[in-house]
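> example.struct
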């Protein structure tokens, strides 16, 4: 299978040709000659899969759902609604500003639709926090706050989970980029297995799922298409190797 990648760092160790995103339209011959395009920029995806009929990795579903938390949440609500926290998505107007406060008590979580690595997430603790969020967003993405000191990160490559670990923090955000630590003890394998099933159902094949586990079950907060692999190193998992093993199964 002939491959071309638009991300040299994420493709390190994978046998592939390379192209530079900034010269995309000057390198279309490389795309046309490839059987599989690896790690295109999001803005390239539609022209590659629809314009040139080329397969991509990560999958189209991974890109399209992972690019926008609103679309991601709608997909989860349509398939596994019991696995996401209570979530409201509204356009901004006087009615919805008040409606959110009728539906949620402080504290609750508000997010930016397109963000990652713990950015664009706020704990709304009072009226001032809420009004600041309202002022800066035309679309409200508001979610139930579930108190916790950790979340479970589950990393899916292809159709398999290649690693799972806790991210532990005393702060609001359990994100390593925001200062969280890793733990590998007491991983709930039943949760990991169900997350794998959810990923397969939605055709998500390169993602890190962030999950809160409670006494009543578990809830998926989101998944990230591009994620750090530091947490996999103590598990002996080499991400490029796992990716290439999966790509080899595609023919």
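> example.seq
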């Amino acid at each position: 299978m002939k491959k071309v990648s638009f991300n040299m760092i994420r493709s390190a160790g994978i046998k592939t040709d390379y192209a530079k995103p900034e010269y995309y339209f000057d390198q279309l011959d490389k795309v046309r000659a490839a059987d599989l395009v690896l790690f295109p920029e999001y803005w390239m995806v539609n022209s590659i899969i629809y314009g040139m009929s080329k397969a991509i990795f990560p999958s189209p579903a991974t890109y399209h759902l992972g690019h926008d938390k609103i679309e991601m949440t709608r997909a989860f609500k349509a398939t596994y609604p019991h696995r996401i926290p209570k979530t409201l998505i509204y356009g901004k107007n006087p009615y919805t500003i008040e409606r959110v406060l009728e539906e949620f008590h402080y504290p609750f979580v508000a997010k930016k639709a397109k963000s990652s690595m713990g950015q664009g997430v706020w704990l709304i603790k009072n009226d001032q926090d809420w009004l600041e969020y309202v002022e800066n967003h035309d679309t409200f993405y508001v979610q139930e706050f579930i108190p916790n000191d950790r979340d479970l990160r589950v990393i899916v490559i292809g159709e398999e989970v290649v690693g799972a670990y806790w991210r532990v923090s005393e702060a609001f955000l359990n994100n390593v980029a925001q200062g969280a630590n890793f733990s590998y003890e007491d991983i709930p394998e039943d949760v990991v297995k169900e997350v794998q099933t959810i990923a397969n159902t939605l055709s998500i094949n390169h993602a890190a799922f962030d999950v809160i586990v409670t006494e009543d079950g578990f809830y998926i907060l989101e998944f990230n298409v591009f994620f750090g692999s530091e947490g996999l190193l103590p598990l002996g998992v080499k991400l490029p190797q796992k990716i290439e093993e999966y790509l080899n199964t595609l023919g």
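> remarks
The CA atoms of residues 156 and 207 lie 5 Å apart.
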